[in-house]
Amino acid sequence: MKATGMMQTAMRETLDAIVKSIGNDRTRLFSIVQAVQASLGHVPDAAIDHLAQRLGMHRVEVADTVSFYTFLDREKKGDIHIRLTKSPISLMQGAPEVAQAFEEALGVRMGQTSRDGKYALSWTSDIGMADQEPSALVNGVPLTRITVADVPEIVAALRASVSNLSALEATLGQLPNALIGSSLVSPGPVLFAPTNRGAGLRAALNLSPEQVIDVITRARLRGRGGAGFPTGMKWKACRQAKGETRYVICNADEGEPGTFKDRVLLTQVPDRVFAGMTIAGYALGAREGIMYLRGEYRCLWNHLQQTLFQRRRQNLLGKDICGLDGFDFDIRIELGAGAYICGEESALIESLEGKRGAPRDRPPFPTERGYLQQPTSVNNVETLACVTRILEKGADWFRQFGTKESTGTKLLSVCGDCEEPGVYEVPFGITVNEVLDLVGGGNAEAVQVGGPSGQCIAPKDFGRQLCFEDLPTGGSTMVFGPHRDLLAIVRQFAEFFAHEACGWCVPCRVGTTVFVQMLDKILDDRGTLDDVQRLESLCRTVGRTSRCGLGQTAPNPILSTLRNFPRLWEDRIKQTDFIPAFDLEQSLRTAIAVQGRLPAAEEDS
Amino acid sequence: MSEASFAITVDGVKVPARPGQTVLQACDEAGVYIPRLCYHPDLPPGGHCRLCTCKINGRHGSTCNLAAAPGMVIENDTSELNDDRRTIVELLFIEGNHFCPACEKSGDCELQAMAYRLGLEAPRLPYQWAPRQMDASHPEIYLDRNRCILCCRCVRASRTEDGKAVFGLEGRGIQMRIAVDAATGLGNTDLEASDKASDVCPVGCIVHKGTAFQLPYGQRRFDQVPIGAEIEAKRMEVRE
Fold it and tell me: Which residue of A has its CA nearest to B47?
């Protein structure tokens, strides 16, 4: 009893210190519970009660936030939690064998925690290392290119630090697998060309805020996250909206499986991204910018904080920036916690406000009422890096790259069956064939353009152009060779969407789970034409009626392969009218054994 | 019609609307029924069930949370939209554990009534058989999550009408459930039987104890008329 009491007191002190360090601010609940998770290894019910009391909230609200995110645990998992990436790319590059090797070495099954509470093993969605799979996060530390042969050395490192977790990161850092490849294969003229720190920002500050928006509008810059909304229009709407203040948010929650270009930008040219946020701050009249960094990229935290520190020292952030009287702007970084949906801008804002990452109804759009109900512009990492370069070099310079409707260059994250996976900066309008030539993917039988929420295209479409006029993409480019089972890949994507659906609306919440079950029946060679037709019909309903982009695009892997690879589906189904969803004999076996007789109908016949 | 009012077109019929009204509210007033489950006239819209999805100027969207605007052209009662709605109701039936013949809400249940209205016969999508918790710890109200459709009316009512937060959400995706504001169950929350949150459940999930079967099957609300009939009746009045 006494020991428990002391533990409770110690825990309360820890919690109070965390709450105090974040300014007793209930809108920062998400940061608070993440700090609790980091400190205690989970967020127990007692902590939820105490936080609710401290922050003047209801416990049900705190529990809601904690229960939503994959990287927050209400029950204690292992002291060390190994999360292996589960994506079509990791699976085809050996992740199942690596998983088995970990299971054997640690004596724990996937999805479970060892009896001594030391090790937990689980799958996780793509962590942004698709060019160096199989990958894993070990208590947040990424490991890449893991082979079965690497597992003993990794496990030895874990065993060496499990009783002293503060040494874990350093110990893991010694491993060859801790090396993250630079991934940058082909730098282009816009995003990676050398430039002077501060050049873009200074150019912007020589203009009026309206003129800055005008330059971005004339450059015809469109959002790089995939949707392609014109940035100038977004900024104009935000600047014109009434509010007490305005916010600039950088969406660094790139979670689309197969994409990792923002990781490369934030590693190589973070200054360009922060400068873009600062320019946005000037153009919109904002004083505060927030970068929402996906939890999987926690390894970039120190590097990014250091960059911010240097920028403050050089007066590129802070008060009277670049000597411009009254232009005060600063940036803080907030971490996500394993929720793909938070890449949707309104869900991202909800998350930043400390709540579950459920998208909002729109209108009102964030430009009108966003973070803390104030006008907010949410822009992609790559978009903001483009902004800096446009201000430095001019709208005309930017427009010379790309096509009429899709100006500039685009970063592609290429992975899968190709000789040189990695990040390529290419002009918009490049054809899929040209991309395949660049990356050494001449054998491709299918290319997943724009990740699972995009399109799976066949060779007949490889002459098409990557741009908003033709094939739009956020950058994820997965190449699949002739020996791959595309329908198994479709199933894996379906599983991803089911795992990442937020649950708010019915068609997406239930539909994405049913997709997986219906696909399983077909992949198990028990599907009929009727099954495929009903699956397609359900896909159309989910696409038409879901509340946000996740549900609206979740059917795309199924629908685009039905359209582009009909033979694959035809070959998979049985030429019979009906096969039940379950095996009747199998299902009745237990009952027959217990009762000692067959069902009456069968006895009669 | 006041000066500020305007018209929207729903399935070819002019429907008057006022600034500040949603499409669904304007239609309700005019006696044009748009199917819905999570919407409740006394509560802010939630956008959960998506049954009120219509085609607005050619694009799909929910209408419970969409402000009516002059000149909107809306498709509502079309076979494609009703097929989508029937599929959504089917998804709700296979997600939860709904046993109408034994449920005290039968005949008074909006989910069941909606299935009848839309002509859902037997679900063909796979049942999930999800384990759901019951909570009978409150002296006057019980909570049977087997029948919950996550419309979140109770969550909204508790906040906006009762000034409490008795109900909330927990979990993500298909694991999402209604949660209550006490680790030990509904009995330790400040829920009262007279709260709005106790009265807005469209299904047999939040039920007043001791009231079951006071009205026999066959004499209940939707045993008499289909769901939506009270709204459609207004249209008759307008015409007469």
Answer: A505
pLDDT digits (tens, 9 = 90+) for A412-432: 999 999 999 999 999 999 999
Q: How confident is the model at residue A586, as a pLDDT?
A: 83
pLDDT digits (tens, 9 = 90+) for A310-367: 999 999 999 999 999 999 999 999 999 999 999 999 999 999 999 999 999 888 999 9
CA gap B43, A288 in Å, rounded = 34
pLDDT, tens digit, for every residue of A569-602?
Answer: 999 999 998 998 887 888 888 888 998 888 776 6
Residue A195: count of CB within 10 angstroms of its CB: 16
CB A373 within 8 A of CB A349: no
Best CA proximity match to B155, nearest among B50, B46, B60: B46
What is the DSSP annotation of A295-348?
GGGGGGHHHHHHHHHHHHHTTSSBSSGGG-TT--BEEEEEE--S-GGGGSHHHH
Contacts with A591 (C-beta within 8 Å, 6 or more apart), sequence order = none
pLDDT at site A600: 74
d(CA A574, CA B112): 35
A361 touches chain B (CB under 8 A): yes
- Strand partners for A479: A416, A447
User: Are A511 and B91 within 8 A, CB to CB?
Assistant: yes
Q: Is A157 left (phi over 0), alpha (psi -120 to 50) or beta?
A: alpha
Choosing among B155, B176, B188, B203, which should be mutated to test the A contact, i.e. which has the most A CBs within 10 A? B176
Could you report the per-residue pLDDT of B46-69, keeping only the tens digit for each? Answer: 999 999 999 999 999 999 999 999
* Nearest-angstrom CA–CA distance, B156 and A140: 36
Q: How far apart are CA A50 and CA A32, in angstroms?
A: 12
CB pairs under 8 A between A and B: 123
Tokens of A377: 């512009």
Q: Is B175 exposed, middle or buried (0-12, 13-18, 19+ CB in 10 A)?
A: middle
CA neighbor of B109 nearest in space, from B2, B236, B206, B6: B206
Q: Which of B38, B78, B172 to mutate to test the interface with A (most CBs of A within 10 A)?
A: B172
- Is 70 exceeded by the pLDDT of residue B189? yes
Q: How far apart are the first and last CA of chain A?
A: 67
- B224-237: per-residue pLDDT in tens? 999 999 999 988 66
Backbone phi, psi, residue B133, to 5°: -90, 145
Cα A33 from Cα B166, distance rounded (Å)? 21
Q: Does B124 touch chain A (CB under 8 A)?
A: yes
Residues A81 and A138: beta-carbon distance below 8 Å: yes
pLDDT higher than 70, residue A500: yes
The backbone region for B36, taken as left when phi is positive above 0, alpha when psi lies in -120 to 50, beta otherwise, is beta
User: Between β-strands B167-170 and A184-186, what pairing exists: parallel, antiparallel or unpaired?
Assistant: unpaired
Written as one letter, the residue type at A420 is: E
Distance between CA atoms of residues A300 and A335, nearest Å: 11
pLDDT of B5 > 60? The answer is yes
Closest in B87, B149, B174 to A498, CB measured: B174
Distance from the Cα of B195 to chain A's closest Cα (Å) equals 18
Nearby residues of B57 by Cβ (< 8 Å), 6 or more positions away: B72, B73, B74
Query: Which H or E run includes A473?
Result: none
Q: Mean per-residue pLDDT for A104-133?
A: 96
> CB distance from B75 to chain A under 8 Å?
no
A207 close to B (CB below 8 A): no
How many residues in chain A?
605
Containing H/E element for A385? Answer: helix A381-393
Residues of B in contact with A502 (CB under 8 A): 172-173
